[in-house]
């Protein structure tokens, strides 16, 4: 019963992680945030691996998922520090876009309650002006929106790590109990019993 409950909970957590990761991936694509896009892609693959391992009773896959969950927590802590500008980090830098564009988070322009104002900016490499939409008067800053997204991912990853370890331990206990019962007995139940050597010699003597 404990193993079933743990498996069901882990399946639910992995499904929720998959949904939230896909939602986050969409908005990161809209904001051209290439580093988070790459991290989200790897995360989606690892969550699918965890789902497969849980359904198919593959402890090794769940271990890989649990290890990634710890890495994912670290990454999201970095994202929170980046947007809240902790430790000398600046949210205005192009770190998350690999210095390929000047785009920022999608939520900076489309956050809750944001009003759009057209602003013209001059680029020395471009002859014509570019019109950028800047969000003003937002009910919630995009930094806090991104931090809340990362906070949710940290919570789900921690729960996934805990239940992943629990399910792996349950699988190991079931395997140990199976070994104790005789699941890996070197003498299978279906082996053919050999005749005693005395009986074989007696039959050979009578045939002669």
UniProtKB/TrEMBL annotation:
Cellular component terms per the entry's GO annotation: plasma membrane
Listed GO biological process terms: regulation of sodium ion transport
Localization (cell): Cell membrane
Signal peptide stretch: 1-21
InterPro entries according to UniProt: Na/K-Atpase_Interacting (IPR008516)
Show the stretches that span the lipid bilayer: 37-55, 62-86, 152-172
Membrane topology type: Multi-pass membrane protein
Which keywords has UniProt assigned to this entry?
Cell membrane, Membrane, Signal, Transmembrane, Transmembrane helix
Family that this chain belongs to: Belongs to the NKAIN family.
Cited PANTHER family: SODIUM_POTASSIUM-TRANSPORTING ATPASE SUBUNIT BETA-1-INTERACTING PROTEIN 4, T-CELL LYMPHOMA BREAKPOINT-ASSOCIATED TARGET 1-RELATED
Q: What is this protein called?
A: Sodium/potassium-transporting ATPase subunit beta-1-interacting protein
Its lineage opens with: Eukaryota, Metazoa, Chordata, Craniata, Vertebrata
């Amino acid at each position: 019963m404990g193993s079933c409950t743990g498996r069901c909970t882990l399946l639910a957590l992995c499904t929720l992680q998959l949904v939230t990761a896909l939602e986050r991936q969409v908005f990161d694509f809209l904001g051209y945030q290439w580093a988070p896009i790459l991290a989200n892609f790897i995360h989606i693959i690892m969550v699918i691996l965890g789902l497969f391992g849980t359904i198919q009773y593959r402890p090794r896959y769940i271990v890989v998922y649990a290890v990634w969950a710890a890495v994912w927590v670290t990454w999201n802590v970095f994202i929170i520090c980046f947007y809240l500008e902790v430790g000398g980090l600046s949210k205005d830098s192009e770190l998350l876009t690999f210095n390929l564009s000047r785009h920022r988070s999608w939520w900076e322009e489309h956050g809750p309650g944001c009003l759009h104002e057209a602003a013209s900016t001059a680029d020395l490499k471009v002859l014509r002006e570019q019109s950028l939409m800047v969000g003003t008067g937002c009910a919630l800053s995009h930094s806090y929106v991104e931090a809340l997204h990362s906070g949710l991912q940290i919570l789900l990853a921690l729960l996934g790590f805990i239940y992943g370890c629990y399910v792996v331990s349950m699988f190991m206990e079931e395997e140990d109990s199976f070994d104790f019962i005789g699941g890996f007995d070197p003498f299978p139940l279906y082996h053919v019993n050999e005749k005693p050597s005395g009986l074989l010699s007696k039959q050979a003597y009578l045939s002669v």
